[in-house]
Specification:
The protein is α+β, with helices and mostly antiparallel strands. It is 25% helix and 32% strand. An 8-stranded antiparallel beta sheet has the order 1-2-3-4-5-6-7-8. Strand 7 and strand 8 form a beta hairpin. Helix 2 crosses helix 3 and helix 5 crosses helix 7. The longest helix is centred in the middle third of the chain and has 15 residues. The relative contact order is 0.11.
């Protein structure tokens, strides 16, 4: 007659080295592989969160210096990690906690594409993998000064650093940012002016909140961080959405939109011009979506640098 195990948790139990060595490890049993005995291109973790330090810049605009009192320099933000490695056909699985442990070894370091490259090399060696990828997503705060009132507030940008190691050991580094801006329609603006001039009718051209998702690959032996992409977006598009406004700021924003009318095609080309001129950028892809106020559908565009073997514009997912 078998003895039933106790249904109780023993909080006093201490693990010894001998006991740990006796624990079974099913990952070392290739004969237990389920399904097809084939390689897996990517396997790992997604949605692992931890606090990481990121370098922050001072504010933007004419009153940007006021951001100093709100803090600049490294700040601790919530990071969301996706980490994967390749798995050959003869191995059942990987030790996923190694990816997590590797990150905790760098808790005091400032997160950058270069740091992620070092972390990636560590956990690829730990898994004896041929390929590995790592992505750290975060919400990046920057102090934004109002256009005319002297107010200010924190603007947040969804951003990510990503690195990839190929079979030959080549490291590729990427930076990504989502940038929200206003797009005033050039056609609508001209038609509104025509109505006023030809018939004396007050008319209002339409504009809408818009978003660009900019992804760049960093050139070899160069450095580039998310604040650089933010600067390119601001300089190219000029009509970033605002945080804090009074009446004078709202008027200024209307004037700003009037000075920088743009179709979704214009937005893509403006960003192309900025990114193509930056020697730190090897390759890039820009996705723009204008959330139309005239139509019940959106206007979208995708543009790439166009280098051989580089990023392509095949994505049809504009739900940014």
């Amino acid at each position: 007659m078998s003895t039933r195990p106790k249904r109780a948790y023993d909080a006093s139990f201490k693990v010894t080295d001998a006991y740990r060595a006796s624990l079974p490890d099913v990952m070392k049993c290739p004969n237990d592989i389920e399904g097809a005995r084939v390689a897996i291109q990517q396997v790992g973790i997604d949605g692992f969160k931890l606090p990481m330090r990121f370098a922050l810049k001072a504010g933007a605009g004419k009153k940007g210096g006021a951001a100093a009192k709100h803090g600049a320099g490294p700040a601790t933000l919530e990071a969301r990690v996706t980490g994967t490695v390749s798995l050959d056909a003869a191995r059942k699985g990987i030790n996923m906690s190694r990816i997590v442990r590797t990150f905790y070894e760098h808790g005091a370091d400032v997160c950058s594409p270069e740091l992620l490259g070092r972390i990636l090399k560590k956990y690829r060696r730990a898994h004896a993998a041929l390929e590995a990828r790592l992505r750290v997503a975060f919400s990046f705060p920057v102090w934004q000064a109002s256009l005319r009132s002297g107010l200010g507030g924190w603007q947040y940008y969804d951003a990510a650093y990503e690195v990839a190691l190929g079979r030959a050991g080549e490291l590729r580094r990427y930076v990504e940012i989502d940038f929200e801006y206003s797009s005033a329609c050039p056609c609508s603006a001209e038609l509104a002016e025509h109505a006023r001039e030809a018939r004396g009718v007050f008319a209002m051209g339409h504009s809408q909140r818009s978003r660009a998702r900019v992804r760049v690959e960093i050139a070899s032996r160069r450095t580039l961080t998310v604040d650089v992409l933010l600067s390119h977006c601001r300089a190219a598009l000029r009509t970033e959405t605002q945080v804090m406004v009074k009446r004078e700021d709202e008027q200024a924003f209307a004037e700003l939109n009037g000075a920088h009318l743009k179709f979704v095609e214009d937005a893509a080309r403006l960003l192309y011009a900025r990114l193509a001129a930056d020697a730190r950028v090897r390759d890039f892809r820009v996705m723009c979506a204008h959330y139309e106020s005239l139509h019940s559908h959106d206007a979208v565009s995708v543009i790439c640098k166009g280098i051989p073997g580089g990023m392509n514009a095949d994505s049809l997912n504009f739900r940014m």
